[in-house]
Amino acid sequence: MKKFSVADISKIKRKRLSGQVPLEVFRLLRLVGIRGALPMGGRSVTAVVGREIGKSLDCMTVEDFLKVLLDLKIGMPEVVEKSERKIVIQLHDCMVCDGMDDVG
User: Fold this and answer.
1) What is the CA radius of gyration of the chain?
2) Contacts of 95 (CB under 8 A, 6+ apart)
3) Which domain range does residue 28 map to?
C-alpha cells in the first residue's frame, strides 16, 4: 500500500467545497469513530498512527515540527519542557479538543 506524504494529501481539487472541512467532521472521525470502533478506545492505533505520521513529516528539528503544526493549522505549539531525552509540547487552539469539555 502506498505511503502518503503531507505533499500528497495537500493536493486538494474540490471545485465547490474547497479544501476546508468543518472541525466537527474531523472530530467525529477522530473522537467518535476511532474511539468507538477500536479496542481500548483506539489508544494503541492512535499511537501507531502518530508514529507513522511523524515519520512522513520529514522534520529534522523540533522547530521543523512546530512549523508543521502551525502550517497545517493543527494548533499553536509551545515547548513547555525540553531535556536531552524528552520534549513536551503543549498545543493551544487545538483542532481536536479546543472548546470541548475536558475528557482526560
Assistant:
1) 15
2) 23, 26, 73, 74, 75
3) 22-56
Q: Is the pTM of this model over 0.85?
A: no
Domain shared by 52 and 64, yes or no: no
Domain assignment of residue 76, yes or no = yes
Residues 84 and 52 in one domain: no
> Which uninterrupted H or E stretch holds 79?
strand 76-82
How remote is the C-alpha of 42 from its chain's centroid? 15
Q: Are 70 and 77 in contact (CB under 8 A)?
A: yes
Question: Which of 93 and 45 is assigned the larger pLDDT?
Answer: 93
C-alpha–C-alpha distance, residues 31 and 34, integer Å: 6
Give the C-alpha separation, 31 to 25, whole Å: 10
